[in-house]
């Protein structure tokens, strides 16, 4: 299970409406994610996250990503703090989500998600195509 007590210990949850945090999941059937399936790897023994794209949504930002679980057992997020960074590792956006919105990820598989970053957690006007989404460890 993911639990980020040091990260979230003194942070107020940034989103009050958890149901709207993850706007879609399990998108593996959709055509627009098929190109990412070829590139997607599940590294044995590692949990990784891979950015697939971002688009504006009424002042907010929808960020697509895959979470890959290379462990032999299923994992479940308790809380997840995500950060969007550019190629120079500058923080573009940061958002904390209730782990239940991501749900359980089966061992040896990947799960597609699209998360809503609220406008007050987006620090730049334009999001470059070559950015990354990461678990926030700061």
Topology:
Blueprint: H1 5-8, E1 22-25, H2 31-39, E2 47-57, E3 60-69, E4 75-76, E5 79-85, E6 91-98, E7 104-105, E8 109-117, E9 132-135
Antiparallel strand pairs: 1-8, 2-3, 3-8, 4-7, 5-6, 5-9
InterPro entries: SLAP_dom (IPR030910)
Protein name: SLAP domain-containing protein
Percent of residues in beta strands: 35-45%
Mean pLDDT: 77
Question: How much is the radius of gyration in Å?
Answer: 14 Å
> Can you tell me the overall shape?
globular
How far is it from the N-terminal to the C-terminal residue, by CA?
A: 19 Å
The gist of it:
This protein is mostly beta strands and 138 residues long. 9% of the residues lie in helices and 41% in strands.
Task: Provide keyphrases for this structure.
single chain, 138 residues, mainly beta, three-stranded antiparallel sheet, 41% strand, disordered N terminus
Describe it.
- The strands form three sheets. Strands 1-8-3-2 form a four-stranded antiparallel β-sheet, with no helix packed on it. A three-stranded antiparallel β-sheet has the order 6-5-9, with no helix packed on it.
- 9% of the residues lie in helices and 41% in strands.
- A hairpin with a 5-residue loop joins strand 5 (79-85) and strand 6 (91-98).
- The longest helix is centred in the first third of the chain and has 9 residues, at 31-39.
- The protein has one domain (5-124).
- The chain is mainly beta and 138 residues long.
- The radius of gyration is 14 Å and the shape is globular.
- The chain has two helices and nine strands.
- It has helices at 5-8, 31-39; strands at 22-25, 47-57, 60-69, 75-76, 79-85, 91-98, 104-105, 109-117, 132-135.
């Amino acid at each position: 299970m993911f639990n980020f007590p040091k990260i979230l210990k003194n942070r107020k949850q940034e989103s009050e409406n958890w149901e709207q945090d993850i706007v879609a999941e399990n998108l593996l059937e959709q055509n627009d994610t098929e190109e990412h399936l070829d590139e997607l790897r599940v590294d044995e023994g590692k949990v990784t996250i891979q950015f697939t794209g971002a688009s504006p949504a009424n002042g907010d930002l929808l960020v697509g990503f895959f979470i890959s679980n290379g462990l032999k057992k299923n994992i479940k997020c308790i809380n997840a703090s995500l950060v969007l960074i550019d190629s120079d590792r500058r923080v573009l956006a940061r958002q904390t989500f209730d782990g239940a919105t991501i749900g359980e990820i089966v061992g040896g598989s990947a799960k597609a998600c699209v998360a809503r970053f609220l406008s007050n957690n987006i620090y730049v006007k334009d999001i470059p195509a070559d950015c990354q989404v990461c678990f926030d460890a700061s």
